[in-house]
Amino acid sequence: MSGKPELTDEQRERIRKSRERAMELRRKRLEQQKVEQERQAVEQRNEMKMRNSVCVAKSNVKKNNYEEEDENVELEDFEIGASQYVTKQDAKGKYCLPDGTLEVCEYTEKDNPRQSKWNKMKLYNRSEIRRRARDRWGGLEGLQEERRRRENKRSEKDMAEGYRLFKKQKK
To answer: What's the pTM?
Structure first.
C-alpha cells in the first residue's frame, strides 16, 4: 500500500458531483459576465452615437455657416490647401489677433503632439479666425498691412539690438 489512503466509490462520486456543480456555477457566472459586458458595450456605443450625432449636428450648422461665408472670401497663399484648423500661435502670428479675441473664439482641444502631459492644444476654426482678423483690421489689405507693420517693427528692433552689440566702445 502507498502512503495515500484509498478513496471509496462513494467519496469519488461526491467529488465528481461537486466538481460538476462548481464547473456549472463557473460557466453560468462567465455567461452572465459576458452578457453584462455586451450590454455595457451596446450602451456605450449608443451613448457615443448620440453624442456624435449631436456634435455632428452642431458642427454641420457651424460648418454650413462658415462654408457660406468662405465661398465669397479671397484666400491668401498660405491658406490654400491648409487645414480647417489653426493653432493659437498661428492665429496670433499670421492673423494678428490678440489673446482677448482668441478667448471668445470657439476651439477644439486636442492632446499636445509634442508631449501628451502638457496642456491640451487649442485648435481654432480657420474660417472664424480669418473672419475675425479681417473684421478687426478692415479687410484683407488691412491685415496684410498690419503684418508688414509688425515685421518692420521686429526688423527695427533687431537692427537696434545689432547696433548695440557691435557698437564700438570709445576709450
So the answer is: 0.55
Kindly state the helix (H) or strand (E) to which residue 117 belongs, with its residue range. Answer: none
Instruction: Retrieve residue 91's grid coordinates.
Output: 492665429
How far is 67 from 152, CA to CA, in rounded Å?
34
**pLDDT by residue (tens digit) across 36-55?**
999 888 888 888 777 766 55
In sequence order, the 6+-apart residues with CB closer than 8 A to the CB of 134 are 140, 142, 143
Q: Which residues pair with 107 in a beta bridge?
A: 124
Measured distance CA(32)–CA(103) in Å, rounded: 50
Do 80 and 86 meet the contact criterion of CB atoms below 8 Å apart? no
Region of residue 148 (left: phi > 0; alpha: psi -120 to 50; beta: else)? alpha
Averaged pLDDT for residues 113-123: 89
User: Residue 66: which region, alpha, beta or left (left: phi > 0; alpha: psi -120 to 50)?
Assistant: alpha
Question: Which pLDDT does position 70 carry in this prediction?
Answer: 58
Alpha helices in 71-111 (DSSP H): 88-93, 99-104
Quote the cell numbers at residue 10. 462513494
Q: What per-residue confidence (pLDDT) applies to 28?
A: 96
